[in-house]
Fold this protein.
Amino acid sequence: MILYDELGGQPGIRKVVEAFYPKVKKDPLLAPLFTNDIATIMDKQEMFLSQFFGGPDLYTAEFGHPRMRARHMPFTIKPEHADAWLSCMRRALDETIESEELKAAVIERLKVSAYFFVNS
């Protein structure tokens, strides 16, 4: 299963991103980490998730290799941050995806990254 296609391609990923970030901005643990221009962050997240889920390499084409762990090192990220991030994503998926199987596959794929960024 190519998650990019299952999610509805670029428009489907954009819907998830648009459902996700309002939750992040309201989360007491995550909101302080997202003080920059949220529109830019959302665009980057959409590009990254596109390639992460098997679609076009939009992020790499624009910014080079993702190096996501290195890009997140300036921030203190604890396991509870990863848990909160995944919780926001689960709720965003609940709003945008009907298939429980697809939601579970997306979360499983994202868990690896969420906990990989933990640095404290």
